[in-house]
Specification:
Elements (H helix, E strand, L loop, with lengths): L9 H84 L8
């Protein structure tokens, strides 16, 4: 029987071994990239949470400011309407006097 020499397979084994090393190196790099991406995602997530908190604080401040401004404007308008109505009532009681608006 003819003996099969392993020397025929050595170049192929070496080639497969090199491919295996390259694949392992590529997997290490991919793991590193994945880890970096996870860290970046965590950072972005934390920033979104912080931004949401800040926006909530600003929202409350804006709501308070707007309510105060509107309340002041309504109070001023109410005062002006009361004064106008009082003048008109006064004009009705004294029809001979002129009032300027």
């Amino acid at each position: 029987m003819a003996e099969i020499s392993l020397e025929l397979f050595n170049p192929r084994f070496e080639q497969m071994n090199e491919m295996h090393r390259e694949m392992r190196q590529e997997m290490r790099e991919m793991r590193r990239d994945f880890h970096d991406m996870q860290k970046s995602l965590l950072t972005v997530s934390r920033q979104v949470v912080n931004l949401d908190r800040r926006l909530s604080d600003v929202k409350e401040e804006l709501e308070g400011t707007i309510k105060m401004e509107l309340g002041g404007a309504f109070a001023q308008m109410e005062t002006r309407l009361e004064q106008f109505i009082e003048r008109r009532i006064g004009d009705l009681h004294n029809p001979n006097q002129f009032s300027e608006d």
